[in-house]
Amino acid sequence: MAQLPLLPQLAISVTEITRYLRQLFESDEVLQDVWVAGEISNLSRPVSGHIYFSMKDESAALRCVIWKSNAMRLRVALQNGLAIEAHGYISLYERDGQYQLYIDALRAAGEGYLYQEFLRLKARLEAEGLFAPERKRPIPSRPRRIGIVTSVTGAALQDMLNTLGRRYPLAEVILAPAAVQGAEAPPELVAALQALNRLEAIDVILIGRGGGSLEDLWAFNDERVVRAVATSRVPVISGVGHETDFTLVDFAADVRAPTPTGAAVLVAPDVADIALELQNAGSRLVSSFQGRLGAYRAALADLAHRLLRTSPAWRIQGDEQRLDALVQRLESGLSHELLLLRARLEGLEQRLVSLSPKAVLQRGYAVVRRPNGEVVRSTAQVGVGQELTIQVVDGKFDARVEKVVPAGQGG
Amino acid sequence: MTEKSKPVDKLSYEQAMAEIEEIILKMEGDQLALEEALALFERGQALAKHCADLLSQAELKVRTLTGRELDALQGKE
């Protein structure tokens, strides 16, 4: 038995030693920001929402915990035996003296390496100018023929077809099927792109696939596929994985959509917009035609009016009117004259009456006339035997001259 | 003017719409004889109806390239 030291060490409490250890962990830079690789075991997902497991390899194990808030954001499906890389900090849970890795990010094993590869490729191809904005072409607004490069078995194809069928059924889709993961994917994707470029008159190409891990999406980072997209004669819209997934094909495409469905939405105008446009065109057609009819009617009315004014009928009407006016003036003038004349006439009549011979005859005078009606005033007008008619007030009688005695000769 | 007398129902949606636009411009602008305006209006109406029919009957057409069409180019690579 070892000798007990002469000066005994003071014993410190469990709490104190534990706290000491915890502080040791928390002051270590490496332990506060570390990626650890291992295999999942003893996975536990209680109702609290937190996740507990151990990461192990051939000779050691490390307890891990993922809080609920981080667990919700996980994109990797956790299961025992899965090889992963986890990021977080190491600390000590004092209550049970267990140190553990508090995980805030997690990826499938090997993805760290893949991601490095991704960055390297991106830098190289970007330096070549493959992703330059000047290379991007505009997408036709009403493409008639849409090419699609994707797997026939994936959900992405159905999503794209449903979206296109709903929004833009006028279009025609040419599907060029290709594997979207695995070693066979890159050559098939390239062949599909080239077939669409050369075989058919396509207005735009959609290329994409559903979500997955970096490894699943890796074919869309393959240099051959990226080059095929960059050199495609037909504009390309990419829709790969989820909104947060960026592959090199996304950078090379003319437009990147966040998902395959997003790509279909981008390429298709809404049939409701098209219907509205048709309706507007119809209305404009009708109103422009009505406008033209109105113009014709007005022109016709104007012509008719002008024609009427120059017609003989019009002129006659005008003359008649002038005639009427003149006649009216005449009449009113004439009647005035007439009145005057009548008055004079009446005056004359009265004078005539007062001068009438009848009044003279009544006084005993007689009117002597020769047979030819000539009134005798003088003895020179008659000779002996001359026949005469003598008119008195109440009649006349015939006589013959017996003797003529001029005045002043006796009698 | 002869290419305009293509039968209405042979035209694609885009072609028909383009012709409707042309007709509207003519109707709004040019000097038109009454008969010509009438004829244009009738054709415009026929075109619009054709477009409406196309829209209501439209179903997305999908054609899949065959393996042969894809392979033929792979071989040339």
SSE topology sketch:
The complex is a heterodimer of chains A (411) and B (77).
Chain A: H1 14-26, H2 29-32, E1 34-44, E2 51-56, E3 61-66, H3 68-71, E4 83-93, E5 98-108, H4 111-128, E6 145-150, H5 155-167, E7 172-177, H6 185-199, E8 204-209, H7 223-230, E9 236-240, H8 248-252, E10 255-257, H9 260-267, H10 271-310, H11 312-354, H12 357-362, E11 367-369, E12 387-392, E13 395-400
Parallel strand pairs in A: 3-5, 6-7, 6-8, 8-9, 9-10
Antiparallel strand pairs in A: 1-2, 1-4, 2-3, 4-5, 11-12, 12-13
Chain B: H1 13-29, H2 34-57, E1 61-64, H3 67-76
Helix pairs in contact in B: 1-2
Distance between the termini of chain B: 48 Å
Helix and strand element order of chain A? HHEEEHEEHEHEHEHEHEHHHHEEE
> Largest sheet of chain A, order of strands side by side?
1-2-3-5-4
Helix tally of chain B? 3
Instruction: Using the CA coordinates, give the radius of gyration of chain B.
Output: 20 Å
CATH T-level fold name of the domain at 141-272 in chain A: Rossmann fold
Quick one: how many beta strands of chain B? 1
The major sheet of chain B is characterized as: none
Large-scale geometry of chain B: elongated
Tell me, rounded to a whole number, the average pLDDT of chain A.
87
Helix content of chain A: 40-55%
Quaternary structure annotation: heterodimer
The chain pair forming the largest interface, with residue counts per chain, is: A-B, 42 and 36 residues
Percent of residues in helices of chain B: 55-70%
